[in-house]
């Protein structure tokens, strides 16, 4: 670790410990969707009205429904049908994840470019997480999708910090190192502050631990596997991961990597 990275890391960790680092807030529309999701009696019509307040979000949901992985014989052209097709729970979790995309923006072009790269990767991991979860576990694919979308959320405060510190912004290697070191603890703090589900709130802090052990498969396992598939050729072999073994696949069974890789485009 070079001197700059060491200094920046120390400053950020001190700011975290002292609660001096400003964390991003969950957009208001996401709060409204989550509140709606907590109503067990909510109808598709009522949820359509909540999500429909954001035209861009509505368009994204319809686009997802019409993606190759989810597309039916007839194209979906309205929000009500899209929510009916996805289901209320999946629509809510997916919508919250897509709303978070709105905060992946910055003033500095270099930071904006990095944020875009992170978001594109997060969407890839989310798409693969959905398919891994649906095919190989009894967990909820909508939760896995949301986990994939937010697993790098801790990078946001680091990049916003970099906007105000040109020496960090001008050193891409140092910036990447600091993000990798700091984002896990920041990600947990953000999701905790946003009151995310217990199964996801520790995901950013644990998903990079490839030796992580649990008694049964969970959403962190699913996102971890999805990350490794997304980074194919740049990570440890899947069969060597405890997360892979947690899937409990019959001996000799392998994941259909090519089809899972196709799922990367589901959210684009």
TrEMBL record:
Record-annotated HDOD domain positions: 23-210
Coiled coil: none
Annotated organism of origin: Pseudomonas farsensis
Record SUPFAM superfamilies: HD-domain/PDEase-like
Superkingdom, natural source: Bacteria
Stored Pfam families: HDOD
Protein name: HDOD domain-containing protein
């Amino acid at each position: 670790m070079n001197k700059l990275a060491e200094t920046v890391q120390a400053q950020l960790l001190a700011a975290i410990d002292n609660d001096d680092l400003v964390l991003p807030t969950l957009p208001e529309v996401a709060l409204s969707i989550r509140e709606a999701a907590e109503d067990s009696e909510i109808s598709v019509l009522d949820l359509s009205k909540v999500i429909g307040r954001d035209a861009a979000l509505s368009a994204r949901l319809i686009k997802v429904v019409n993606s190759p992985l989810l597309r039916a014989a007839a194209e979906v052209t309205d929000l009500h049908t899209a929510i009916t097709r996805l289901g209320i729970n999946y629509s809510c979790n997916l919508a919250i994840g897509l709303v978070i995309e709105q905060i992946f923006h910055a003033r500095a072009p270099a930071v904006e470019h990095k944020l875009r790269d992170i978001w594109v990767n997060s969407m890839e991991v989310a798409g693969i997480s959905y398919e891994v979860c649906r095919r190989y576990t009894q967990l909820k694919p909508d939760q896995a999708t949301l986990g994939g979308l937010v697993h790098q959320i801790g990078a946001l405060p680091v990049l916003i910090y970099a906007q105000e510190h040109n020496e960090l912004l001008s050193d891409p290697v140092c910036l990447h190192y600091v993000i990798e070191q700091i984002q896990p603890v920041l990600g947990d703090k953000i999701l905790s502050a946003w009151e995310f589900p217990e199964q996801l709130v520790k995901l950013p802090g644990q998903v990079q631990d490839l030796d992580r052990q649990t008694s049964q498969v969970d959403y962190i396992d699913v996102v971890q596997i999805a990350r490794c598939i997304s980074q194919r050729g740049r990570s440890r072999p899947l069969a060597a991961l405890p997360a892979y073994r947690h899937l409990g696949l019959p001996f000799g069974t392998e994941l259909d990597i090519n089809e899972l890789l196709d799922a990367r485009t589901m959210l684009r």
